[in-house]
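Researcher: Good morning. I'm working through a list of sequences from a screen, and I'd like to move beyond sequence-only analysis. For each chain I'm collecting a predicted structure so we can compare shapes side by side. This is the next one on the list. No need for commentary yet; just the structure.
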Amino acid sequence: CVETFKSNGKDKCRWYELDGDQLCDTGIDMYPYGNGETSCSSEPPLKKDCEDYETCNNCLENGCFMHGRGLGCDEYEIADGPPSYTNPIDDPDKTINDVCEEMQEEELDHHFICSRITDCNECVETFKSNGKDKCRWYELDGDQLCDTGIDMYPYGNGETSCSSEPPLKKDCEDYETCNNCLENGCFMHGRGLGCDEYEIADGPPSYTNPIDDPDKTINDVCEEMQEEELDHHFICSRITDCNECVETFKS
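Model: Good morning. Structure tokens for this chain:
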């Protein structure tokens, strides 16, 4: 209004305001408004409630808290709640736009990367979208989850490595491979009988961890087992003649 010229090209319109009523007119004296103003009031517009701000920038610009995880703008910070973001008035090197970009990045990392992981080792080795920081593992009283490294009550801000405590030991029968069987102090039996806690008396060949032989590894023992099983199944046991048997080379 106050920047618009009237038809004479030199005078401008004027702004009339009284008790909430507002209008633009020619500058005539109008009761009870008077003859209008040539500039606008410097008073800020009426402030909305924080809940009415839909974007992060608008929320922070008006002194409110922006909450992650879709909870939006609020007058107060949520105790023990999701990450909250505020106007960085005490940090001259950071702008509101910087804060809102951080929020957007954290939300993407949470929803599309970290929270989808259920294994600790995979979690702490997985990079977030910035390519340099990794997800963190949160664990408390049996509850376990992977997230972005934010401070979450009562978990804290997560761990960057997994607990050094060994996993609960399986029963020997649960180990399917020779290496896993021997590494866990069990006996591996040939002829398809698998892994067991005990050696089978008068049974098939059994294989154990060669802890008393510094020149032999578990892998060496398992290769020996594999070779013996192949010789048994595909060479020796197929022969029914004694002379042929004792003249036949193994693998």
